[in-house]
Write the structure tokens for this entry.
Amino acid sequence: MVESLVSSIISMFGSFSATAFGKEIITFVISLMPILELRGGLLAAGALNLNPLTAYIVAIIGNLLPIPFILLFLTPVFNWMKKTKLLKGIVEKLENRAEKQKDKFEKGEFIALILFVGIPLPGTGAWTGALVASMIGMDKKKAMLAILLGVLLASVIMMFLSYGILNQVMYH
């Protein structure tokens, strides 16, 4: 799914990639997005033949940028959203998703959060990790450090896939 979304985005903005910093901006924006995050950003960077070091730095920054805001403001925003009929269902759906992950985090929450964010599987990543950390009331500084370490782990795995095996199969 991530691969097809990345391919679609690259197709839509393909001509933009030829502009100054176009490849970097596409990589950054994809890395900011929930669901796609760093995985999608590095896949796009590999497909766009962006310099690996540049791709690595841009994708990590893009993926981490929203995380402090999620950790700081998610609970108050969710509490406000639950007061509205229109948004209550969305919040409850997200809370249920986080609740399903909660058991994995209660013991050894720091290491569990690193691995949850760091192993690039569907439904994992910095956004979901920040959501779960907020929902279980994890210390924000501890959660941010665990998410940072998880993103660094995921970035190493995805660099290998994006600039190695997967890139050769998908785009050449």
Notes: The chain has ten helices and no strands. Residues 140-163 form the longest helix (24 residues).
